[in-house]
Amino acid sequence: MLRTFALWGSRFSRRGTMINRDSSLAIPRDTTRKAVRLSPVAGSPGTSLLELMMGLMILALLGALAVPGMASLTRTYNLRSAGDELVYSVDFARSQAMANRTAYGIVFDSAVPNGPYVFRVYKGSDATCGSVAKGKLVRTVDRSATNVDNEPVIGFVRTAPSEVASPTAFLCFKPDGRMIRGDNGRTFSAPAASLLSAGDVVLEIARFEKGTAIGTPVQVQIGYNSIARVTFGRAIEQLQGSGQGGGAK
Question: For the whole model, what pTM was predicted?
Fold first, then answer.
């Protein structure tokens, strides 16, 4: 053991050089490697005040161009969010009516042109639509100019068929999954040439500023089967019904 250590020790000199086993030539350690530090190039130019001002002007111009686009996107988002509120409320009323075997209703304050986008969801005491009028209030959506959350103002532009605008003809959701008129228990009307099926309704809403509708409106279609969705750009005149309601109870 001691002999082995002695042989290994003999390969290295006191100065840290390694001795070749087969010759007396020493291979010196490379001690010339040093850390290289980069230094800035002498005389390199900096940023002038003029260049800095030009850069700021370009940023300001790009920001000014982006503001109208951002405002339009914000209006679209707020309007779509309001439409989704009604879609969610319809889904809620339908599912609760089927689960609890009780009629639910969505009542609009005033679904007339320029009317405020305010509606309430009621739970009836039994399976009849007549029980909804004196039922329990379970949800309120208020996007009028006086809403307490200071949300952007949303209002109705048009509705179809025309009887939807009447507060008495509220949307009644039955335990069997149908949506019918709350006043007479019949389906909402639709003319023969209408794009709507019998029993479907459409409510067109828009952002309002200073009492005037701005931007492109959206439409919320609610089917006779109580399925709701947000749509765009259909002529409301082609959606009008007789206003009297039709079909069987």
Answer: 0.67
